[in-house]
Amino acid sequence: MGGERQHYYGKHGTPQKYDPTFKGPIYNRGCTDVICCVFLLLAIVGYVAVGIIAWTHGDPRKVIYPTDSRGEFCGQKGTKNENKPFLFYFNIVNCASPLVLLEFQCPTPQICVEKCPDRYLTYLNAHRSQDFEYYKQFCVPGFQNNKGVAEVLRDGDCPAVLTPSKPLAQRCFPDIHSHKGVLMVGNETTYEDGHGFRKNITELVEGAKKANGVLEARQLAMRIFEDYTVSWYWIIIGLVIAMVLSLLFIVLLRFLAGIMVWVMIVMVILVLGYGIFHCYMEYARLRGEAGSDISLVDLGFQTDLRVYLHLRQTWMAFMIILSVLEVIIILLLIFLRKRILIAIALIKEASRAVGYVMCSLLYPLVTFFLLCLCIAYWASTAIFLSTSNEAVYKIFNETACSVAGKTCNPETFPSSNESRLCPGAHCQFAFYGGESTYHRALLGLQIFNAFMFFWLANFVLALGQVTLAGAFASYYWALNKPDDLPAFPLFSAFGRALRWGPRYHTGSLAFGSLILAIVQIIRVILEYLDQRLKAAENKFAKFLMTCLKCCFWCLEKFIRFLNRNAYIMIAIYGTNFCTSARNAFFLLMRNIIRVAVLDKVTDFLLLLGKLLIVGSVGILAFFFFTHRIRIVQDTAPPLNYYWVPILTVIIGSYLIAHGFFSVYGMCVDTLFLCFCEDLERNDGSQERPYFMSPELRDILLKESAEEEGKRGEVE
């Protein structure tokens, strides 16, 4: 058949000589959107320069280690504070908020200590007693006992009082607990402040009361980390099972597409049905049990999610959600039953295309690897930029002072005028900042870092889409399948998409990803402004911000849709981005009914496949980690929160299934767009035969004829 074909007719009816070695409609390609390619290269060079500057000035230790009043890190190896990992506050009462503590701006001297104090002790009592050696470790480094008590306390050389404390985020907080409804520190409800007065524990609580939330978050994080340490290998096994199931499903689709689609539909309905049945049984089992009728609102948020499973309302909510999903899926299947047959034909054709380009199933690993590189570079650059500030020292005083809060130099402060104006003031480390040009540009550099991350991440995704589209388009536009296919269609498509030369399209990919990155960075800025405006009472500003966020969300979704189809046209014709986007958009608009009832039905069926794999693996993980499988009941590890590995397995399984099915999705979209183009350009005659396979031609052209007949009847 290929030997009989002599010409291919171009878009405007211009005959072009048929090349039997050509694997697509247009073979005279040119390098497209060169300017955007140059911009991308220059932006990457600038991004590397920003990274070098950040790595030169940044210091991640500022995030890892707490810093004392002299700006020295606590617990850092190779320094004099190596064995002093905890930060101790002389007077925790002066710290009115834990936010002040976490930002190192508490107006009291702070030193690095080997361990937090474990007893009540005042400087007056410890002075000239056997406890003084213990007390000295909480005084400033190099303290010599050559001053009077009043001078030591005035100069801030030692704290006035020690209270029992425990480390939290490498900082010493009072060991506050409740006993029979009474707040206590250690075994006391009051404490001596070191100046001869006794104070209530509630004053200590004011200094660290909101740290309880930080403490609970830290405890939750530690328990989650413990769960990962004992269950990580079972999580990996669950993800391997998901990968095997996904691969098996894809392979079976290659040979049994029709049967597998119907099996998938039935299995999804059965899995949801079993979920509804299980929720009902749990709901019925809890009837009459003490505490099971408490509402979710009354219970509030609990870090131990197992508590919710003892409430009837929880299982009722699960049952309603699953029932709604079940009804929606069944109704869609009833109304789309005829379209499902057509979608199965398209999936069969996609299965054949994937079968001839089997290495395409492994391409998501390339995309995943490149995205990991983008994320790693962005995260490291962001950390180094955020820690490239200089240490800023400020004047702190416990009483009112005219110069309090001003910057100072700790080396010259004792002999300065400020120290004479405020005799009890201290020049101590406050935070990291700076007033230089570089420091003022840090916010802009962070925005540029985020923008480049979006641009490069979208470029990587675009590269994957163009590569897969080029490989599957070469399959569709081959007259004699698979004889006319190139030896390595995936590698050929990858080379056309990425490499620089007269037939490649790096610039077009850069253009499309640039547009999407601009919209995404605008959305990030809007989210930032929205957070800043939350405290405002201007309802119009909030309404305007909500409208803008909604509009740009819709715009991003539309650009994603347009880019995906534009990349397919780039892979087919080699035209620039704007031309490809315009042609793809109008081609889809001319075939809007097919897009709605065929392409989207196929996407729906592939979504059911993902849900089937995720649901199956998720149910297996649930029964395993909750010790409900008797055969391996003793094998499952003991956990603080069994939802941690279960959610990890479910999310990981979805990502794995999405990676495999995304290849099918791209294949279906490419074949569908090629089919619409083929239908417009050719008429099935000997001079202009269809490129589509006979099986696809029979069912799709039959459907087109039926649609034309229905239109005629309506008219």
State the total count of DSSP E strands.
14
Structural class: mainly alpha
Share in β-strands: 5-15%
> What global shape is seen?
globular
Question: From the alpha-carbon coordinates, what is the Rg to the nearest angstrom?
Answer: 34 Å
InterPro entries: Choline_transptr-like
Subunit structure: Interacts with COCH.
Organism: Phocoena sinus (Vaquita)
Function: Choline transporter.
Short description:
The protein has helices spanning 34-57, 61-64, 98-102, 123-126, 132-136, 149-155, 201-208, 211-255, 257-285, 296-299, 312-335, 337-356, 363-386, 417-421, 437-440, 442-476, 489-498, 506-533, 539-573, 577-590, 592-625, 643-681, 694-714, and strands at 7-9, 15-17, 86-89, 110-113, 121-122, 161-162, 165-168, 171-174, 176-179, 182-185, 190-192, 198-200, 390-396, 426-433. The chain is mainly α and 715 residues long.
Topology (elements, then pairings):
Layout (H helix, E strand, L loop, with lengths): L6 E3 L5 E3 L16 H24 L3 H4 L21 E4 L8 H5 L7 E4 L7 E2 H4 L5 H5 L12 H7 L5 E2 L2 E4 L2 E4 L1 E4 L2 E4 L4 E3 L5 E3 H8 L2 H45 L1 H29 L10 H4 L12 H24 L1 H20 L6 H24 L3 E7 L20 H5 L4 E8 L3 H4 L1 H35 L12 H10 L7 H28 L5 H35 L3 H14 L1 H34 L17 H39 L12 H21 L1
Antiparallel strand pairs: 1-2, 3-4, 5-6, 7-8, 9-10, 11-12, 13-14
Helix pairs in contact: 1-13, 1-16, 1-18, 8-9, 8-12, 8-21, 8-22, 9-11, 9-21, 12-21, 12-22, 12-23, 13-16, 16-17, 16-18, 16-19, 16-22, 18-19, 19-20, 19-22, 20-21, 21-22
